[in-house]
TrEMBL record:
It holds the Pfam family Cytochrome_CBB3. This is Cytochrome c. It comes from Allohahella marinimesophila. It is found in: Cell membrane. PROSITE patterns: CYTC. SUPFAM superfamilies: Cytochrome c. InterPro entries: Cyt_c-like_dom (IPR009056), Cyt_c-like_dom_sf (IPR036909), Cytochrome_c-type_DH (IPR051459), Membr-bd_ADH_cyt_c (IPR014353). It comes from the Bacteria. Keywords: Cell membrane, Heme, Iron, Membrane, Metal-binding, Repeat, Signal. Residues 37-140, 182-290, 317-404 form the Cytochrome c domain.
Amino acid sequence: MDNSGQFRQRILVTLCLLSAGLSIPAGAARPAGQTDSALDRGRYLTQAANCKGCHTTILGQPYAGSVAFDTPFGTLYSTNITADEVEGIGAWTEDEFVRAMHEGIGRNGQHLYPAFPYTAYTQLSREDVIAIRDYLMAQPVVAHEVPSNDMKFPFSNRSLLWFWKLMNFDEGRFAADEDQSEQWNRGAYLTEALGHCGQCHTPRTLTQGLDDDEKFAGAVLQGWRAYNITPHETGIGNWSGEELRFYLSTGHIPDKIASGGPMADVVTNSLRHLSPEDIDAMATYLETIPPQAGIVPALSDVSFNLDEPAEDSALAATMASGEQLFETACVSCHYPDGGGPGGAYPLFPHHSAVRAEDGLNLINVMLQGLERHGSDGYKFMPAYHALMNDEQIAAVVTYVGRRFGGYEADFSAEDIRKQRQEH
């Protein structure tokens, strides 16, 4: 790694360490009558809803917006939700904020794009929505102007969203299931409403609504694959209850799996802050979701006896290059067998990103690296987007996929280039 690359990584690590916690800053404005305990509750709910993850850019001020969301219909930018009266929500009334969260309608009566997950937040109680608003209003004001959305015609016309809502949006608050326990209902509220897990883990229909027939079966969003989180053998069906609970709070299971990309951000900004009781409630709920088959084969169904490529073939040359690069850049942490010390490095064959034949998340991790704060500490893997060219990353991913993923991996430099363009 050159000196500039080392410097950039040190800066990124330092920034992540400095921003690991979320606290009420000294001197921040406080709504009249709000107590520390009330703001603590608002902070907890804001973290559970992962507002920071979607409304804070990598080097931006918390909640100031401008995070880009690429959709099939154009690019959207998250809004400024600080208390600035011009650029943020400082001039919004309680009712206007509640209406946005519950109905997906902005202050001026315009329909909001469903990249903002009001389809999930509609289930939140009014009390919880107001607690979130009060917490946001107590944070530092940031006068940041968000870029204009760049949506293709006719999707730039917000009035057409009423038709989308007619097909894809059911407005209404969460209703407890009287046949289920209090813990199960708490888990459902956290998973479906606050945590809005389905927004990433449920496939979309042609109209970009959630496909409830494949609920939590996995989907691709922002260039990353969110995996199956139903109790199917291709999902979390082979995880023990203890493993599921540990993963939710830490983002990994020792010697088995580790989160990266957007899921690592969810762990960092949201899940690690939840109480053990709420983590337990979410796990209890997820364990009862109807099983759905995912795209990643179960480990028990994978064969690791692939035929060796012909000695003089291009694939053989790619594998040789990939093995050499793996031994040079990867084995100090992952060991030659795809494991690693201390259980923090998942055994590659157990890892969904390694067994997934599209190689999507494996390529992304190679390009972007990994940063995650879990309840058990900080985890980091360097990014190789500037340290290896497309051919080299393709060789490593091909080698890892064939040796540890058990499938006929053969990735090209063009595959890597496409993923670079996604981010």
